[in-house]
Specification:
This protein is α/β, with parallel strands linked by helices. The chain has a single domain, classed as Rossmann fold. It is 24% helix and 25% strand. It contains 5 helices and 11 strands, in the order ββββαβββαββαβαβα. Strands 1, 2, 3, 4, 5, 6, 7, 8, 9, 10 and 11 form an 11-stranded mixed β-sheet that branches. Strand 9, helix 3 and strand 10 form a beta-alpha-beta unit.
C-alpha cells in the first residue's frame, strides 16, 4: 500500500512504534541537518501519521543535543500540520501525582543553549506565543484520556529546563512558584512548530514529584510508573486520532499572519 502525505506527526519514545501499521522508514535531510532518526510513515487504525523518536531509536540523544529544528522541519516537509508530543515530566504540585496525565496550555522557557527559531534573518518574524498550545488538540487529548478512565488535568504550565541534569532542590522550589510540571523537551519544539503554523499539543505523563518534595524518589517505583504511563500514552493517542477533525478550525494556522517585520 502506498502511504500518502500524513497530516499528523507524533514525537515521542520508541514505545510508540507498537502503534504503527504498514509503516516504512524514510530517510530525510533538512537545511538544518538530519532529524533524530528516519521518519516512520504509517497508519494507526487507518489514520495516516508520521512518527519520529525524539531521542533516536536507541534513546542515544540527550535532550540538550536533539536537533529540534531538523525534527520539526522534517515533519513539516512531510505535510504534517498537527503534532502530538509525548513528554515525561516531574510534578511541581502535590495535587498532580505520579501516574497522572497532564496537558499543559502554557510554558516557561528555562533553557539556555538551544536553537529556538528558524528566523535568524534576513527575514524577521515575531510570532505571537500568548497561547502556544493548540486548544482544539488539547481538548481532544484531555477528553479521550478522561474517557479511558485516566486521571487527567487540562491546562497549566510546563517549565522546560536545559538538562541533562535534574534540578537542585533550591531550583525545584523556585520553579514550583511559577509552573505545575517540569521537563526538558517541549522547548523549542513548540516554538518551532508555531513558527511553521503547525498545531502542537503535549501529552505529558507525570513520573514523579520533583526534588522539592521531602520524600525521596524510589527508582523502582519511577520505572514502574514510566511503563504504566507509556501504555496510557499509547491508548490516548490511538483513541484521540479518531476524533481529530480533518480540517483545522483553530487559529494555529494563522500564526504567521502579520508576523513579518
Amino acid at each position: 500500500m502506498e502511504i500518502q502525505m500524513a497530516k499528523i506527526g507524533i514525537i515521542g519514545g520508541s514505545g510508540l512504534y507498537s502503534l504503527l501499521e504498514n509503516h516504512k522508514p524514510v530517510e530525510v535531510n533538512t537545511p538544518y541537518g538530519k532529524p533524530s532518526s528516519a521518519l516512520e510513515l504509517g497508519e494507526i487504525d487507518g489514520v495516516e501519521v508520521v512518527f519520529l523518536p525524539r531521542h533516536g531509536k536507541k534513546h542515544s540523544i540527550p535532550p540538550h543535543k536533539v536537533n529540534y529544528r531538523a525534527n520539526i522541519k522534517a515533519l513539516h516537509d512531510q505535510g504534517v500540520e498537527r503534532i502530538i508530543s509525548a513528554n515525561a515530566v516531574g510534578s511541581l504540585k502535590q495535587e498532580f501525582a505520579p501516574g497522572m496525565m497532564f496537558i499543559p496550555d502554557q510554558f516557561i522557557d528555562f533553557t539556555r543553549r538551544r536553537e529556538l527559531t528558524y528566523y535568524d534573518g534576513p527575514d524577521v518574524y515575531h510570532i505571537s506565543s500568548a497561547d502556544p498550545f493548540c486548544p482544539d488538540m488539547n481538548e481532544v487529548l484531555a477528553g479521550q484520556s478522561k474517557a479511558l478512565g485516566y486521571e487527567t488535568h487540562l491546562g497549566g504550565t510546563y517549565a522546560c529546563i536545559e538538562g541533562p541534569r535534574f534540578s537542585t532542590r533550591a531550583e525545584s522550589k523556585m520553579f514550583r512558584q511559577f509552573a505545575d510540571i517540569i521537563g526538558m523537551t517541549v522547548v523549542p519544539e513548540i516554538n518551532l512548530a508555531n513558527e511553521l503554523a503547525m498545531c502542537y499539543t503535549s501529552l505529558a505523563t507525570i513520573t514523579d514529584y520533583d526534588v522539592w518534595a521531602e520524600e525521596p524518589v524510589d527508582t523502582k517505583e519511577v520505572l514502574k510508573i514510566l511503563k504504566e504511563n507509556e501504555d496510557k500514552s499509547l491508548n490516548i493517542i490511538k483513541q484521540s486520532l479518531k476524533h481529530i477533525s480533518g480540517t483545522r478550525k483553530c487559529d494555529c494556522k494563522r500564526r504567521l499572519d502579520d508576523a513579518k517585520i
